[in-house]
Amino acid sequence: MTRSADGEVVLHTYPEAPWLPRGGRADVIRGTTPPTPMCLVRVLIVSGGHAFCVRRDGVGKLDLLTRLVDADDPFGHRAIGELMAEVIGPDGRARFVGAVRNTVVSAAPDYPWPTPLAYFGVWRVEGVPVVDGVWLPLCDGSPLAERHWFPLVRGV
Asked: Name one GO molecular function term (predicted).
């Protein structure tokens, strides 16, 4: 783990991340303030060592609830507020816990995210989900362990 001057802690690095264009790196960072540009927001609801998940768009894999962030919402505040209201209702509270930061210096025209940096944030949300989903364990061997954000769940 490394700590930056602004208090950000790098929990894990995926060098040459296979889901990014050649030479791309992804860092899982813990922090207290959402960085910009935020591209996706995720809701982490934890209960009894389990995370609330839904089927991911089109592929059917279980994952945290996720929403795209509009360009006019660079820190993802509006997106996380709207997603949280849908998932647990209007009285929920969210706390930013960290993000996956993609660093891509040279991208093909079909790469959909900003360069050189793009952030995919995770907010810990307190409340009871009002949407359908399942609870998956957050322990070693969890089916969620392959998710890029998974290092963030330790200690939240």
From this structure: hydrolase activity
Please name which of 31, 123, 135, 52 lies closest in space to residue 81, comparing C-alpha atoms: 123
Tokens of 24: 């791309």
The tokens describing 56, both together, are 């991911």
Reported pTM: 0.91
| DSSP β-bridge partners for residue 10 | 2, 29
- Nearest Cα residue to 43 out of 6, 110, 95: 95
Residue ranges of domains in the chain:
2-153
Neighbours of 119 (CB within 10 A): 25
Distances in Å between the Cα of 46 and the Cα atoms of 8, 80, 126, 135 are 23, 16, 8, 9
Element spanning 34, H or E: none
Is domain 2-153 classified as CATH 3.40.640.10? no
